[in-house]
């Protein structure tokens, strides 16, 4: 069995709402806002307690308050959940852990299928690092919207088997990501204590077939300013959140809204393995744009879950790969050589702003740049074929500067191709088209002095790649 990932694209379009009446979820809690990251326990088969200590320490150093432990039915799952809790206890830290049942891995047709879920929940409910909301153990899930646990309907199944079962009733705060139309949330009274909006992380409504309607007349190979502005409104937008928050307010029991944020999405598994081959549009600095949206709307969001710490197979990891850590078979092709910890280095600034409402001081200039390694139109001899919706992506390098003061950033892809931009104190988002055969370079200057000169080795925008790879190559540098 594998429990790594499980994401079947469910293109529930965010309802287009009239007006912008963001209803506040009436949560009676004094629990402060938190930022957690989704951790795929299915990729930790060989983790020692020390590996968990390393992940927890690194997450904490970047203002991440906890891990959602995505678990399935792998035989090592109980041991690794225990190791995670042991590590947090060993650190005597306030780091939060909670279970996130991957319901694409568990059986959930019979009432007895709920036994292991309750069992694990109760085993950890009172451990010191278990995340508690209003005195109840916080529990999440990925999917589960087809589980009946032997009852007549899904809500009844979850109520009888899990949330209202006498062993567990009153002890948990259940905030799953059910892939259902939010208009049906009211059917889940007694099940949902809140909603985790997994798909809010990406603009999933941007598909090749939807683009002509969403961006009429746009040339995605050379966006004009009007089209780019329209695209920027869609990428990282709060509309998917509004649809969920508004619907949650109509349910009796729900009090918590957890939004998602992610830097990327590319997966490329052939039909004979996981059979997933698609991208989401993560252009226009999605990682930063989405954070800015969540910060601007922080009054309506209780918690944020980062997707993900380590889901290498879908390219949205921000944590490091550990020595000896096995990847989902086949994903080495797009993961090896593609470290994403540069994105992790931006997390502290935005997570802190989300939690406190105040932007933290920038003590050192920081430059993070990323790009895909080949033009979208490249045609390698790759039997899996190009990922669905690749056409909508732009062949650009994306740069973010956290600047201590005003300055200039020069981006280039060839010596003969550079552009200089003014940079202001604070967050700056810039981009430059990539030239086939070119590199990626960013030079930050101030008062005629070079502050950062970043030209990562190992990146070339290769017009003749050996296989499709729409993962991001991420480079970063911090001023001395
Ligand atoms: C529940 O957990 C205990 C260990 O804590 C184990 O012995 C038992 O078999 C588990 N039961 C189920 C139904 O998973
Ligand atoms: C565990 O580690 C061994 C030795 O490094 C490696 O061969 C194996 O693939 C790993 N297994 C998993 C599931 O990570
Ligand atoms: C890039 O970011 C990572 C994560 O914050 C950090 O550990 C590393 O030192 C950074 N690299 C440079 C060159 O600043």
TrEMBL record:
Question: Membrane-crossing residues?
Answer: none
Domain of life here?
Eukaryota
Task: State the Pfam families in the record.
Answer: Glyco_hydro_71 (PF03659)
* UniProt KW keywords: Hydrolase, Signal
Q: Which GO terms describe its molecular function?
A: glucan endo-1,3-alpha-glucosidase activity
Signal sequence span per UniProt? 1-20
Any idea what this protein is called? Glycoside hydrolase
Species of the source: Lentinus tigrinus ALCF2SS1-6
What lineage, starting at the top, does this entry show? Eukaryota, Fungi, Dikarya, Basidiomycota, Agaricomycotina
